[in-house]
Amino acid sequence: MDYNFDEIIDRSNTYSVKYDNRKTKFNRDDVIPLWVADMDFKTAKPIIDSVIERANHGVFGYTSTPKEYFEVIKNWQLKKNNWNVDTKYMSNATGVKTIMNHFMREFIHEGDKVIIQPPVYHGFFKVVENWDGELLYNPLKLVNGDYYMDYEDLEEKIKEGAKFLILCNPHNPVGRVWSKEELIKLAKICLENDVMIISDEIHSDLMLWGSKHTPLASISKEIAENTITCMSSTKTFNLAGLQVSTTIFPNLEMKEIYEDIQERLDSNKINTISLVANMAAYTKGEEWLEQLIKYIEGNIEFIIDFCAKNMPQIKPNRPGCTYLMWLDCKELNLDEDDLIDFFINEAGIGLNDGRDFGIEGSGYMRLNVACSRLLLEKAMNQLKDAVLRKENILGKDLLISE
Ligand SMILES: Cc1ncc(COP(=O)(O)O)c(C=O)c1O
Predict the structure, then answer these.
(1) What is the pLDDT of residue 268?
(2) Mean pLDDT for each 10-residue chunk of the chain (402 residues)?
(3) Is 200's C-beta closer than 6 angstroms to any atom of ligand 1?
């Protein structure tokens, strides 16, 4: 079937974080919300149908995870990434952050060091700090507008005694799809230095322009034995409110320890609706996903073109994956707080402050383009008008001072 991603769905008053928390986040509730990483689109029809069918059953008693649940995830990985992962290493959780928090709680002790690669998803900072771990920063290098891993710096940082590295594969917010070669180089350094990698692959189904995701643990047995993979259908199919994710452990001992914590915290159950939705997503969601990806590519093209023609001071990246764009706003010549104020109060649009992803994000804003083209056009026109107004004001200032 053909999906209509142009459809505008009113998400306000649905307890949506993106819409209904605007006042708290931006101090006003009328901004066009283009921030938190979920989509304004309805999910795939087979997912909705499965949820309705289950809801119509009407009994929502305790639910256990069937064997087929992990089989479905295995098959998806095999089909999408040619990764033949054994289900015996899989475990479930409500979210990727939950996985990481459980994990850090058990495996790091006060002062243990964990490497992250900023600018990077802000949740990584938190999961380490929550358990009194010490963050070591191995910032990405910006070369001709593209981000790369800095292996020399990594080798230096590793000498400080890191225990884990949290990898964003592919990368939020800069949209980098790491090549197999880049991942091998990273994994080799980590293996040599006894640093285990937690590979967050939550955005990996949203590959754009035909780019290819490499699950880190799929590269070799040796790398798999040093990798904990976190994945989820929630970004792919817009199911974040259902809270469901999967971990793939490097060995059964680690999985056992993890599941024991889950059991002690009584957090090892899958919500009935999440279970049904997740299975439908991975078995019947592909047609929708293919159309979604085309729509997102169109939105990204629109932003790149619009900025180039109307406000070249704002330089968007061309992400290789997912629906998050990284806008270089340094040529607006605003200091950091004024930049945020400008987007919210002058342009009336709510984006993520680049600094949320580390100091490397200063002068950048993260734009979520997973919304209807019409809304995006409205937002970009508001931004263009704000830039024009700002330039005029600056022009007047210049005249006054002359
Ligand atoms: C890279 C990355 N990891 C994890 C998450 C959060 O995942 P969850 O909602 O499953 O905790 C996000 C959400 O934006 C993300 O971008």
Answers:
(1) 85
(2) 96 97 97 98 98 98 94 98 97 94 91 97 97 97 96 96 97 98 98 97 98 98 98 98 97 95 89 97 98 98 98 97 98 95 98 98 98 98 96 58 38
(3) yes
Q: How far apart are CA 367 and CA 323, in angstroms?
A: 8
Q: What would the two tokens of residue 118 be?
A: 């900023």
Query: Does the beta carbon of 37 sit less than 6 angstroms from any atom of ligand 1?
Result: yes
Q: How far, in Å, is the centroid of ligand 1 from the Cα of 316?
A: 22
Classify 161 as helix, strand or coil: coil
Which residue, by CA, sits nearest to atom 10 of ligand 1? 95
Residue 232, ligand 1, Cβ within 6 A: yes
Query: Is the separation of the CB atoms in 206 and 321 below 8 Å?
Result: yes
Q: What per-residue confidence (pLDDT) applies to 97? A: 95
What pLDDT sits at residue 395? 55
Is the CB of 240 within 6 Å of ligand 1? yes
Query: Residue by residue, what is the 3-state secondary structure of 166-186?
Result: EEECCCCCCCCCCCHHHHHHH
Task: State whether the beta carbon of 101 lies less than 6 angstroms from ligand 1.
Answer: no
Q: Look up residue 7 and give its two tokens.
A: 């459809």
Q: Rounded distance, CA 200 to CA 247, Å?
A: 9
Residue 289 CA to residue 279 CA, distance in Å, equals 15
d(CA 227, CA 101): 16
Query: To test ligand 1's pocket by mutation, which of 92, 202, 242 has the most ligand atoms within 8 angstroms of CB?
Result: 202
Domains of the chain: 17-44+286-401 (3.90.1150.10), 60-284 (3.40.640.10)
